[in-house]
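Okay, any thoughts on this one?
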Amino acid sequence: MKKKMNLQLFAEPENIVKAADLEPAISVDFTSRLSANISELQNLLGITDLDSMSSGTVIKIYKMEQVNTPEQVGEGEQVGLTKFEQKLDRTVELKLKKYRKQTTAEAIQRSGRNLAINKTDEKLVSGIQKDIKKSFYALLETGTGKAAGNGLQAALSAGWGAVKKFYEDEDATPIFFVSSDDVADYLGKAQVTMQTAFGMSYIQDFLGLGTTVISPTLAKGKLFATAKENLRGAYVPANAGDLADSFGLTADATGLIGMTHATVTNTASIETLMFSGVVFYPEFLDGVVASEITSGENSTEKVYTQEELDALTVDKIKGLAAFRGYTITATAKADIIQEFLTQQASA
């Protein structure tokens, strides 16, 4: 005798929340936002493209060394060759980094599923951003170029000069990285426009020298200067291959960040798993200049003369004025210089 099976007993319960249900609402949004933030940092650093590499790839960072200094020769004699060597200075392994956290059932009960998960995912994303910036600054601090100046302005100028000298045959775009402690006194009184990218504050064309990134991560008393053309970026793609397939990662078109959510029944929580393999680095370490700020006193030590100001561009004079907190209302160069000299005398 045949018996009918009640297939309804084996049917999936209605309204069950699956891991896949969490993906469109949360994972896509966070991966897109974080990838957009990384792209902002990429644009700030002047990096056109990020290089896609496999996890475990060793990135080689070089420095150029002059091997010899030929003697000068007389008229008609053969001029000796100056030899340069590109030497390996440091290697960086591109590693796939993993981040995980959980949102408890109680948190979901209190705030609702999406809000509770979003709040804790924000903390996870913040940690990823900090790691990317921390590793980048650590590489900058290994730069072998040297400069120094009496005060912030002089140190910036010395760093600018050293970068220009290193790239004397190229169209280099200087960029500076300065501790927030070294510029705190001046940001309060200077008329400057601060912008933010990837959680980093920066000033475009500060003092007419170039983009200046201000970070509390850097130690006081030393700033770093390089050319945007010296900076590179690489990443492990998280939107294709065995990694993405095995973990069911969600990623945007860039593939910079991979993310997935899953229910964990034994802890009554929703688990977030993120993968990131993004690194920014200087291609040549001797193209990174560490400029020492030799005095806490700054731009007020320098007294500019009429002749010195005449030799500067209008933008440079306005930059110096903003740096010192002067208010310049004139538009013609001669009047701008006169306002600058008047306020300098009364300072």
